[in-house]
């Protein structure tokens, strides 16, 4: 298996300093599946290329497993492992270029921190998802992608193409970032890992994905495939990935919430919202309800006071916030019967969590405005497409009403963590489109005092399947 990395940065031989590998030497390193060789096919001031060549020993891999009997087929011995880029490449990258992946360089730290032109070539890249998936993974990271399908057999073209691509990736980026991208995305493209995946893999994913994975439009797919489709690990990884990086998230969330309460306190909007949402859920006849983005548990508290709700689950991406909800609800003091009605679950609202299927209704109260607009499509698919409850109640601020709040500067949002606030027309456009795409009808309801010019302070959409 071969992977080459080329730069035309001047002098190009500085690549050796960044990789901590002398261009004039060949280095061979033992890895558990064979040997990894590092050498430089070319090294001039104008152009420098480093090659990573893996000698994968398929016979050694079979015997390493310590089986008592020989395999009944040739597949364990004859496969694509010696030839195609896979999780073995990730292991080798970490082994031979581990220091470079950290972004440290004793001799050229300024260069290590600087984007440079880089070209990656992989002669045989397995890609379960084809060229389209390859582009979806690398193009958002500012790569120019060139891919040529490799036929199953050049003499029998009617057999079609194999799942392998001859691949060229061009970018201008820090070397450490490119190595991290390759480390994570190569096994994702192959959709396989050739070793046991445990919780330790979450730490590797978050460490190598730092600075880019959180905002990648395919972060859910990347996480799921990297962790070999183990839902419990993927849920934990996404929850940790998307949780805000704060020194004290508990106090920070509380401070932000107090800002919004201060703006809305004069009209008692918080209580009116709770009443409107609970009323919509009762009108729908829901008994099993999800509170998505449950925060500190105010809606959960209101639902528990009504005996018609038999099963109530609060979901939030932040473990610290869920702890706040547990304290508000006094879970440890509840009777066994009451405690059996409620549960708290850590999960991302943009992750397709099939554990959230089978509920009558879901409430999403003052949550969507905290999502980046680029994540709304994933949120829609996860909620309306996968969880697919019978009723969905969504509330969000009405941006038009902000001019009626004293002390809120013109053009300001009600909460510093809001990514956007929609007008009534914008909210209705999004909700109507989401309903049509996922088999729902939707109606709209004002919440709070209505102003003849700017409407109500909160707008609510009720989706019915």
Give the helices and strands, then pairings.
Blueprint (H helix, E strand, L loop, with lengths): L1 E6 L7 H5 L7 E5 L2 E10 L4 E9 L1 H7 L22 H10 L1 H4 L7 H4 L3 E11 L3 H9 L5 E8 L9 E13 L1 H16 L9 H9 L10 H8 L4 H12 L6 H16 L4 H15 L4 E5 L5 H7 L6 E6 L2 H11 L6 H4 L2 E5 L14 E5 L10 H12 L3 E7 L26 H15 L2 E7 L10 E7 L1
Parallel strand pairs: 8-9, 8-11, 9-10, 11-12
Antiparallel strand pairs: 1-4, 1-5, 2-3, 3-4, 5-7, 6-7, 12-14, 13-14
Helix pairs in contact: 3-7, 7-9, 8-10, 9-10, 12-13
Question: In words, what does this structure look like?
Answer:
A hairpin with a 2-residue loop joins strand 2 (27-31) and strand 3 (34-43). 35% of the residues lie in helices and 22% in strands. The chain has 17 helices and 14 strands. It has a seven-stranded antiparallel sheet. The protein folds into two domains: 2-195, Hen1, N-terminal domain (c-terminal autoproteolytic domain of nucleoporin nup98); 251-464, Rossmann fold (3-Layer(aba) Sandwich), CATH 3.40.50. The model is unreliable at 244-256 (pLDDT under 50). The protein starts with a strand and ends with a strand. The chain is an alpha/beta fold and 465 residues long.
Task: Describe what is shown at a glance.
This protein is an alpha/beta fold. Helices cover 35% and strands 22% of the residues. Strand 3 and strand 4 (48-56) form a beta hairpin.
């Amino acid at each position: 298996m071969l992977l080459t990395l080329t730069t035309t940065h001047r002098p190009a031989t500085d690549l050796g300093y960044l990789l901590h590998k002398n261009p004039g030497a060949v280095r061979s390193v033992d890895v558990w599946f064979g040997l990894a060789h590092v050498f430089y096919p070319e090294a001039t001031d104008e152009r420098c290329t480093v090659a990573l060549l893996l000698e994968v020993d398929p016979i050694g891999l079979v015997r390493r497993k310590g089986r008592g009997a020989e395999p009944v087929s040739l597949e364990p011995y004859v496969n694509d492992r010696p030839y195609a880029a896979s999780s073995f490449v990730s292991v080798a990258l970490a082994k031979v270029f581990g220091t470079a992946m950290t972004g440290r360089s004793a001799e050229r730290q300024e260069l290590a921190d600087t984007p440079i032109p880089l070209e990656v070539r992989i002669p045989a890249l397995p890609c379960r998802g084809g060229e389209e998936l390859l582009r979806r993974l690398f193009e958002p990271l500012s790569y120019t992608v060139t891919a040529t399908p490799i036929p199953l057999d050049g003499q029998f073209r009617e057999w079609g193409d194999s799942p392998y691509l001859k691949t060229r990736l061009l970018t201008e980026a820090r070397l450490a970032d490119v190595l991290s991208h390759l480390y994570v995305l190569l096994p994702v493209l192959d959709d396989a890992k050739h070793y046991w995946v445990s919780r330790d893999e979450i730490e590797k994913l978050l460490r190598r994905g730092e600075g880019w994975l959180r905002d990648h439009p395919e972060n859910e797919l990347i996480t799921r495939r990297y962790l070999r489709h183990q839902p419990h690990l993927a849920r934990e990884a996404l929850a940790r990935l998307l949780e805000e990086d704060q020194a004290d998230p508990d106090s920070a969330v509380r401070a932000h919430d107090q800002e919004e309460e201060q703006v809305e306190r004069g009209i008692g909007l918080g209580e009116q919202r709770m009443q409107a949402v609970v009323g919509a859920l009762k009108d729908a006849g829901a008994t099993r309800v999800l509170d998505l983005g449950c925060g500190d548990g105010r809606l959960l508290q209101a639902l528990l006071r009504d005996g018609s709700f038999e099963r109530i689950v609060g979901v939030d991406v932040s473990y610290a916030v869920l702890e706040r909800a547990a304290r508000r609800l006094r879970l440890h003091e509840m009777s066994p019967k009451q405690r059996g009605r409620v549960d708290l679950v850590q999960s991302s609202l943009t992750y397709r969590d099939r554990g959230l299927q089978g509920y009558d209704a879901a409430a999403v109260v003052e949550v969507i405005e905290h999502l980046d607009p680029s994540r709304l499509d994933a949120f829609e698919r996860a909620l309306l497409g996968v969880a697919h409850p019978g009723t969905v109640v969504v509330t969000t601020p009405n941006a038009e009403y902000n001019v009626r709040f004293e002390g809120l500067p013109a053009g300001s949002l009600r909460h510093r963590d809001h990514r956007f606030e929609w007008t009534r027309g914008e909210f209705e456009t999004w909700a109507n489109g989401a309903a049509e795409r996922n088999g729902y009808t939707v109606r709209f309801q004002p919440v709070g005092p209505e102003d003849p010019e700017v409407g109500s302070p909160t707008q609510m959409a009720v989706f019915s399947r």
